[in-house]
Amino acid sequence: MFTQDRDRLRLFYVEAWRKAQAGEPLEPLEQAVAQVVADHPEYHALLGRGEAAVGGEYPPELGQTNPFLHMGMHLAIREQVAIDRPAGVRAVHARLRLAHGDAHAAEHAMMECLGEALWQAQREGTAPDETAYLAALRRLMEAL
User: Fold this and answer.
1) Peptide bond before 86: cis, by omega within 30 degrees of 0?
2) Residues 6+ apart with CB under 8 A from 82
3) How many whole angstroms from its chain centre is CA 92?
4) Rounded to whole angstroms, how far apart are CA atoms 53 and 72?
5) CB atoms within 10 A of CB 78
């Protein structure tokens, strides 16, 4: 799945979901993707379109959410929590999970902070600033 090719990456989501729906064996990363898709029934019809789902454009200026980016951010946050990187993100997630009622809602709360960290890194041509990201997450907790 590690590719810069947008269409191949999107096709990975489509194929992982198809395999999950068909009860076929899944590799660990496919399992993770299929779980994120399962958590988003609003995207099931899109992914069910197979390769036709791959080419969509989702301009934010038109108020559209890119479903592949959205699900990718869930995957990123789940990986961060699993390995606790940046250090302390697992504790933030646990606190937000309690405040919001479940892990999925906690991830949604964390997404804006992750999106900002990624946007800043892209803008500056650097790696994401883990310290700034964690500080933003902690401010999110303080606002509870």
Assistant:
1) yes
2) none
3) 17
4) 16
5) 17
CA 101 from centroid of its chain's CA atoms: 19
Torsion of CA 112, 118, 120, 126, to 10 degrees: 160
Q: Where are the domains of the chain?
A: 1-56, 65-144
- Residue 24 phi/psi, 5-degree rounding, is -80, 155
Close Cβ partners of 29 (under 8 Å, ≥ 6 residues apart): 1, 16
Q: What is the pLDDT of residue 3?
A: 60
The average pLDDT across 67-74 equals 96
Tokens in use for 98?
């309690």
Residue 141 pLDDT level (bands cut at 50, 70, 90):
confident
pLDDT of 69 above 90: yes
